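Researcher: I'd like a candidate sequence for this fold, 76 residues long. If you have to choose between options at a position, lean toward the conservative one.
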């Protein structure tokens, strides 16, 4: 398991935990990112991490991406 910020582009991952405050967790949840959500990393270069969740692209800042712990989908 590792932070979302370290995931490679094109990688499909499953969210294992979100180590952020209540407001950030609620905001992510409203965008479709919860524990056990499957997301795909669209872009991870300089700047925000862009992921695809439930058919929508979502930009997540680096700081928050470090608090979202994920695991490669095939590792389960």
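Model: Candidate sequence:
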């Amino acid at each position: 398991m590792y932070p979302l910020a370290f995931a490679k582009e094109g990688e499909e991952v499953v969210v294992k935990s979100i180590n952020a405050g209540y407001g950030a967790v609620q905001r992510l949840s409203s965008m479709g990112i919860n524990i056990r959500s499957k997301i795909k990393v669209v872009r991870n270069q300089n700047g925000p991490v862009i992921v695809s969740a439930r058919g929508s692209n979502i930009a997540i800042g680096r700081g928050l991406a470090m608090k979202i712990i994920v695991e490669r989908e095939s590792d389960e």
